Amino acid sequence: MLVVGVVGSPNAGGRTRVAVDAVLAGAAAEGAEVRVHELADTTVPDVVAAMGEAEAVVFGSPTYRADIAAQLKGLLDQTPRGAAYESGDPLRGTVCATVLTGASDHHFLAVEKVRAILGGFFGVQLLSPGLYLPSAAFTEDKTGLVDDMRQLAERHGRALVELTTAVRSSKWLRELRPLV
Prior knowledge:
Layout (H helix, E strand, L loop, with lengths): L1 E6 L6 H16 L3 E6 L5 H10 L2 E9 L2 E2 L1 H9 L16 E8 L7 H12 L3 E2 L4 E4 L12 H22 L2 H5 L5
Parallel strand pairs: 1-2, 1-3, 3-5, 5-6, 5-7
Antiparallel strand pairs: 3-4
């Protein structure tokens, strides 16, 4: 099983990458192959192609004014969903998880915005709940997560593999598509 992490930060590295890496570590512990693509240093077509190869995708973004980063929004705007005028549908049948980072707890509801886009617009199956990690979740030097938050992120990765296995074994869940 391939799980692709997409880091939607305008800058490579940083706290969002740390958070996505922790989720992917949990997925890898369950036997998944994992890869990361940072929108700050790769092209949208490359990321769309990577999503098309994956069985699961972890979308990570810093939170700005209670919303996802423009880079991730731009990727989602350019991701085809199988309409008659589009070529491709890279997220069809894919299971997704969301990981947002922010300065404080005040922006945690941004998780629900991106989940609504993924679930409603793209018709993907989503790991619930979404993960939101404020500054307090990170070590002082911001290069890691404090132990309980690292364990939580890794549990999300493990659960993502389990949910992906369940969706992959279901004929009907794999076949669901956006309604419009």
